[in-house]
Each structure stands twice: as structure tokens, then as C-alpha cells.
Description:
It comes from Marinobacter santoriniensis NKSG1. By secondary structure, this protein is mainly beta. The chain contains one helix and 20 strands. The longest helix is centred in the N-terminal third of the chain and has 6 residues, at about 1-5.
Amino acid sequence: xxxxxxxxxxxxxxxxxxxxxxxxxxxxxxxxxxxxxxxxxxxxxxxxxxxxxxxxxxxxxxxxxxxxxxxxxxxxxxxxxxxxxxxxxxxxxxxxxxxxxxxxxxxxxxxxxxxxxxxxxxxxxxxxxxxxxxxxxxxxxxxxxxxxxxxxxxxxxxxxxxxxxxxxxxxxxxxxxxxxxxxxxxxxxxxxxxxxxxxxxxxxxxxxxxxxxxxxxxxxxxxxxxxxxxxxxxxxxxxxxxxxxxxxxxxxxxxxxxxxxxxxxxxxxxxxxxxxxxxxxxxxxxxxxxxxxxxxxxxxxxxxxxxxxxxxxxxxxxxxxxxxxxxxxxxxxxxxxxxxxxxxxxxxxxxxxxxxxxxxxxxxxxxxxxxxxxxxxxxxxxxxxxxxxxxxxxxxxxxxxxxxxxxxxxxxxxxxxxxxxxxxxxxxxxxxxxxxxxxxx
Length: 441
């Protein structure tokens, strides 16, 4: 009986490993204090020190995927563990990984965490039900990119396309307090129109708030996010999409301001007024040459995921669950701020010197307008990639964003946000470089 059960179980195991060495540099933050400052109001008396103009570091990421499928029923369980995912901080990471009495208390390693874990159940009509922690992507990364969601998802093939219906619990940190639940539902479709692949998604958050200033920030809000991609008369590939977001019943003028304050409603935060984000991308392959031209924009603080591919290693391109250490500027992160607009026009050219070795350069212009002032920044990027074999790839990046008197920096989870986040770079350009290794099998 044990043997027959084992034979009916199909297993699949894979490994993803990445290592990164990186550096970011700018004079924009070198007068700010680092995160260990105990008293920012009296930093000199507290002995605080200012940040250096450059930060460099190393990081690695190790994830192991294990999927199990019962061949008789078709039911499967999909799991992925993150065994390591940290910036290198020394021999002892000082995580509370167990009791103080242990084999190893001097060189403690990373915490192991569940990255993905869900059950997939086949239903009549080739429909699928998924329940558990899942990966979320939509609209080529414009709406969401490599996120993790506790989700119930139904996938239903029909004659007009594949219907998607889902529920996410985006927040629930406190029991017996519905304000923080973050209940989100969505209904979408993926289909074909002629030679184009297209999709559309409507997202809605339940309204759980009772007027209290605590709780989940989105209540009653809506998102509409369509996209289309395909070849135009065999000349080039066209990809376009947008996000519209609004209708949030909570309008926070500033963090900590009560919803009943007279200041509420003045600026559209958070997504109470209509906000927009969009992109249009034209790409063409000519032999060993890959060309691309892209426009990315936001109006009134429109939403763009941190992982959206802007052709720049320093602007977005930092997926929500797999951070990019050289990404220091986030387009689409102003949460519906009224009159705050961003535009990026950028072109890229990639050339395959050999089937394994590719060079890609990009140049563009980033324009930022806050309603009272505006400025433009030159954006430069260079990447080199070498596919060693089917499992191993190495690549390097170098990038620069010229100074901008309106925009502010955001940083990323692999660098200390304290001296960077919210910092103006009005008189300083920002540069970065990285060397990366990827192993997948």
C-alpha cells in the first residue's frame, strides 16, 4: 500500500540562488544621520554620525521549491521555502532562532520562512481552485510584481477567455478589530483580441472602517488595470497598459492626522481621488540587436509597482519580494498625491555579441512635477549579461540618475532606508553598480 501511494505521488524540486555585490553613491544623503542615531532631535549630544556618500554590500538569496501532486486526483500542493535572503552582516546575524542554550549561539544564520504555500484543486470544466500563499503579478508588473498574497483564487476557462476571481486578506494584525482586515477582491479576464493578448482586472477593497484613524489604509477603494500586447503588422511588438485607482473612503492628509481633521481631503492621500499610471512600450528584434522605446507616466500620484521594468536598474525594477539593491527611485509611489506627476521616456538597445554574452544600454529622461515646480533628470544605464550554462548566469549593471530638484529618493530593502528615503537629490546625481550571480535548476 505504501509503494502504490508513493508511485501515485508526483514530486518536483527546484532551486533558485542569487548573490549580489553592489554599491550606490551620492552626496544627496551624506548630511543625514544613520539609523542607529538614538536622538534625532539632539544628534550631536547623542553622538550620532552622518551617513557616508557611498554604501556597498553583499547579499544572497536561496529559495527551494517543492511541489507535490496526487496523480489520481490531480490535487497538488505547491511550496517554496526561503532559506536565506539577507544582506551580509557578519558571522552572527543575531536572529532569535531558538533557545539561548544551543549548538550555535555565536554564528547564527538566517531565519527560514515560507515564501509560497498553497493547494491547487482541479474542478469540473478544467477550472482550478488555489488556496494559500501565492505569487501575484499583473499588467507586466505595472500593478503588482512578484508579490506574495494570502489568497483564494479561482481560474475558469470559458469561450471568451480565462476568468479570474480572487479574494486576498491584505491585513489582519489585530483580532476583533475589522478595521485592519484589508479585505480585497478582484475579478479579471485574460483573452485574445485578434493577434493581441489582453487582460483586464477590477480590484475592490471592502469598507471595514468605523471612522477610527487606525486600521488598513484602503477602505472601499477601487483599481481598474487593463493591458494589451502583440505584434503590429510584423513590424514591432506593442505593449501598453494602465492603472486607475480611486474611491478610497479614507483620505489621510499626513500620517497620524485623524480622519476627522479639517486637513483631510486636501491632497488625495491615500487614493481617495482619481489617480492614473500608464506605459506604452515598442520593441523590435533585428538579428542580434534588440531595440526598445518606452513611455511610463503617473498623474496625481498614480500607482506603479516597485518591480516594473523601466529599462533602468535604478528606477523601480525592484520586485516586491525580490529586492534590487541598486534601485533608489520609485515611480508611482506617492499614494494618490494630487498634482504629483512623473514621466519617463527611455530607449534601450541590446546586442548579442555571442549566443551567451549580451550588452544592453539605455538612455532616458525622467520628468517630475509636484504642481508648483518641475525638473528633468538624465537617466543612463548599462548592463552586461553572460549565460555560463543553462543553470548559471552572471551579469553586471551600472547606472546614473542626474540631479532633480523635485523628486525624492526611496531606496530599497537591501540598503538602510534611514539616510535615503525621502531625500532630495536637487544638487547631486546618484550612481550605482552591481555584480550578480544566479543559479537555477
